[in-house]
Amino acid sequence: MRLLVAGGAGYVGSRLVPALVERGYDVSVIDQLWFGNQLPPDVPVQQRELFEVTEADLKGFDQIIFLGGLSNDPMAEFSPSQNFVANGALPAYLAFIAKKAGVRRLIYASSCSVYGYTEDQLYNEDDPVTCGYP
């Protein structure tokens, strides 16, 4: 299976990508490389802005895992508009062009932006989606 990890050189991706490769997946990464590149040297990495990705770039991928958002509440409070663009508009754009390219699945990896803010509580896929703060 051919996977694209969007934002795959960041904190989560630097652990996820090697695990996927170890399990036999054909993995490629697109990332701005704000935090460098700590991925195995045999993983193809394109340094670019995800809004520049086209339908042609996504042809042949079976799935996309989106890790390219801005992660944390201080960042969201610093620039709510940029937070919306990175965590709402960008994955929606990727989903739109991925569908046109024939990609079967886009996984939006998230926590607070899907399940809302919680204190001392763990959520999973069976919990209600709230998309907000209490």
Report the portion of residues in β strands. Answer: 15-25%
What is the number of helical segments per DSSP (H or I, 4+ residues)?
5
Helix content: 25-40%
Order of helices and strands: EHEEHEHHEH
- Sheet with most strands: strand arrangement: 3-2-1-4-5
Helix/strand structural class: alpha/beta
What composes the largest sheet?
A: 5 strands, parallel
Low-confidence stretches: none
| Arithmetic mean pLDDT | 87
Give a written overview of the molecule:
By secondary structure, this protein is an alpha/beta fold. The chain folds into 2 domains: 1-48; 71-116, no CATH class. Helix content is 34%, strand content 16%. The longest helix has 22 residues, at 80-101. It is globular. The N and C termini lie far apart (40 Å).
List the helices and strands and how they pair.
Layout: E1 2-6, H1 13-22, E2 26-31, E3 45-47, H2 55-58, E4 63-66, H3 73-78, H4 80-101, E5 105-108, H5 112-115
Parallel strand pairs: 1-2, 1-4, 2-3, 4-5
Summarize the structure.
With 134 residues, this protein is an alpha/beta fold. The chain has 5 helices and 5 strands; from the N terminus they run E-H-E-E-H-E-H-H-E-H. It has a 5-stranded parallel beta sheet with strand order 3-2-1-4-5, with helices on both faces.
Features:
alpha/beta; about 130 residues; five-stranded parallel sheet; 5 helices
